[in-house]
Design goal:
- With about 90 residues, the protein is of the alpha+beta class.
- Helix content is about 10%, strand content about 25%.
- It is built from one helix and three strands; from the N terminus they run E-E-E-H.
- It has a three-stranded antiparallel beta sheet with strand order 1-2-3, with no helix packed on it.
- InterPro entries: Glyas_Bleomycin-R_OHBP_Dase, PhnB-like.
- This is VOC family protein.
């Protein structure tokens, strides 16, 4: 996607710093990134917070050709698509 990049990724510290980090060392805590100039921050929520319908991303397009382009690239669950909503292969809508 044009105008998209990862700005920063923070990782869990070494488990020797705190027992809470046991088994988490080196895993991502947060990531800051942009998609088509729209900034986002992702937070690792642990095993209890999985992708679901409660989270959606918005993609602003300049015209129908651009909408069709991204729709084709992102769409993974045709039966879940309606009113401009697309569900991708990760379950995000």
């Amino acid at each position: 996607m044009p105008n998209s990049e990862i700005q920063q990724i923070e990782y869990y510290p070494d488990a020797s710093l705190d027992e809470y980090f046991e088994g988490m060392t080196g895993k991502v805590i947060t990531a800051e990134f942009t998609l088509n100039n729209q900034p986002y921050i992702a937070l690792e929520g642990g095993p209890y917070f999985r992708f679901n319908e409660a989270i959606s991303l918005v993609l602003n397009c300049e015209g129908q050709d651009e909408i069709d382009y991204y729709w084709e690239k992102l769409s993974a669950v045709p039966e879940a698509e309606q009113c401009g909503w697309v569900k991708d292969r990760y379950g995000l809508s």
